[in-house]
Specification:
Elements lengths: L3 H12 L1 H9 L1 E12 L2 E12 L3 E5 L6 H8 L5 E8 L2 E2 L13 E4 L11 H6 L11 H7 L1 H5 L10 H14 L4 E5 L7 H16 L3 E5 L3 H4 L5 E6 L2 E7 L3 H12 L2
Length: 257
């Protein structure tokens, strides 16, 4: 048992404003006791997790676990939410949805939401700048060669994989530093899934922070620093990349893989 003298430095460290501020500065996102509702339906039941700057984390779980709703709640796209959502040091619970992207957040929904009547190049010219550092068209086309080849093609003529690439590319044009990505590999061919994995590795190398909702665990497993497992609207487990090899069988059983 520690003496009072030994305990004192620990206690002071836990309350040292400089240390607390340094810890907070390392975080891009902190979600605490998040509850979300659609009408009378209570979907999220006290979600807690944090994401450090430059990290790639996954939200894993079976269908209906609350993963996509968590992303929508962060963007204030649910009926009602309570708790705390701190983005880049800013409490955002009372913030209007159109103000949240200005904190450097890009959200890529499962339905992608590209402008089907416009061609690829026109889609890429539309996004507003929300913060400095957005990728240029040349950088976008270097990262997504398929889009350069199809730059004059209308959205209706793109494959599912090309539409997904375009949806992500539009966000990267805005200057977003944190990406919320919802099921970006769903229904796509393996060669496109592999390309998206390469893109995420490049984005992480550029210092971007990524929260990935993904059903394809084989795709997500080698990319993430940490995995958060959701069930019934809560985070029930956190597994780091280092722990993954010994926990894979357990995780597979939880996910029904």
């Amino acid at each position: 048992m520690k003496t009072a003298e030994e305990q004192a430095p620990i206690d002071s460290a836990l309350t040292d404003p400089a240390l607390i501020k340094n810890t907070q500065s390392l975080e891009m996102l902190r979600v605490q006791d998040l509850h979300a509702f659609y009408g009378e339906s209570h979907i999220l039941h006290g979600v807690n997790f944090n994401v450090k700057r430059g990290e790639l984390v996954t939200l894993l779980g079976r269908n209906g676990a609350g993963r996509s709703t968590t992303l929508k709640a962060i963007m204030n796209m649910v009926g009602r939410r309570t708790g705390s959502i701190v983005i880049n040091g800013n409490e955002t619970l009372a913030m209007k949805p159109h103000h949240i992207p200005r904190l450097g957040i890009g959200y890529c929904p499962e339905e992608r939401g590209i402008f089907a009547s416009l061609d690829v190049h026109e889609n890429l010219l539309l996004p507003p700048t929300v913060s400095s550092g957005g990728m240029s068209l040349d950088e976008i086309y270097a990262m997504f060669p398929n889009l350069y080849e199809r730059r004059k093609s209308q959205g209706t003529r793109l494959s599912g994989g090309e539409q997904q690439m375009l949806a992500m590319a539009r966000i990267l044009r805005t200057g977003a530093r944190m990406l919320l990505l919802d099921e970006i590999t769903e229904g796509l061919a393996p060669v496109i899934v592999q390309k998206l994995a390469e893109v995420l590795i490049q984005l992480k190398a550029r210092g971007m922070t990524i929260v990935l909702v993904e059903q394809n665990f084989r795709f997500a497993a080698p990319l993430a620093d940490r995995h958060f497992v959701m069930d019934h609207g809560q985070i029930v487990e956190e597994i780091t990349a280092a722990q993954l090899p010994s926990r894979r069988e357990h995780l597979n059983s939880m996910l029904g893989v």
